[in-house]
Amino acid sequence: MILSNRVWRLGDNIDTDQILPGSYINLPDKALRASHCFENIYPGFSSLVKPGELIAAGLNFGCGSSRPSVEILQDLGLGGVIAQSFARIFFRGGIARGFPLMVCPSLQAGDLPTGHHITVNLEEGTLVDQDSGALFSIEPYPKFFQEIMETRGLLNYTRTHMDREVR
After folding, report:
1. Residue 152 vs residues 7, 56, 89, 104, 143: alpha-carbon distances, Å
2. Which residue in 29, 37, 83, 125 is deepest, having the highest Cβ count within 10 Å?
3. Does residue 167 sit in helix, strand or coil?
4. How many whole angstroms separate alpha carbon 99 and alpha carbon 78?
5. How confident is the model over 72-125, as pLDDT tens digits?
6. pLDDT for 166
């Protein structure tokens, strides 16, 4: 799987309250709920971001309480998140939903600034900043994770494999 698009840069310890403030969790309208994504740290983000664009962040992205944070990022149409590290429950939730979360341990604060165009190859474990020429290694997904991404989530993966076994 190859992802290529513009990047939005965020810092360390982006928690689930920053991704989606708690007061908006129960909004039934997904678009309205997603419009509040990152509003406290990046005002206007939801109206500026385009489908397929990617987030680059530092350490511990997605820390905090368990809430539909990955779903909000998907509802905005984001292509994925690259971070130095992720909170464990957020990472597992992203993979289960088929949302690309890429670990790039060498990513530093000045790397991948907002607006740069990047290309990520999940199979090879490479990330290239097309604007600066910088090359980064990302942790490649195990084959099982790649298959979950290809089927767009764990539920679809399970259905696909159950269908094969029934035949």
Report:
1. 22, 21, 18, 22, 14
2. 83
3. coil
4. 9
5. 999 999 999 999 999 999 999 999 999 999 999 999 999 999 999 999 998 889
6. 61
Domains detected in the chain? 2-166 (3.20.19.10)
- Tokens 């908006």, residue? 24
Other Cβ atoms within 10 Å of 24 Cβ, number: 16
Task: Write the pLDDT tens digit of every residue in 50-85.
Answer: 999 999 999 999 999 877 899 999 999 999 999 999
- Three-class DSSP category at 62: coil
Q: How far is CA 78 from the centre of its chain?
A: 7
Q: Rounded mean pLDDT of the chain?
A: 92
17-25 long-range contacts, CB within 8 A, separation 24+ = 17/64, 17/65, 19/62, 19/69, 19/72, 19/73, 20/67, 20/68, 20/69, 20/72, 22/65, 22/67, 25/67, 25/68
Query: CB of 2 within 8 A of CB of 122?
Result: yes
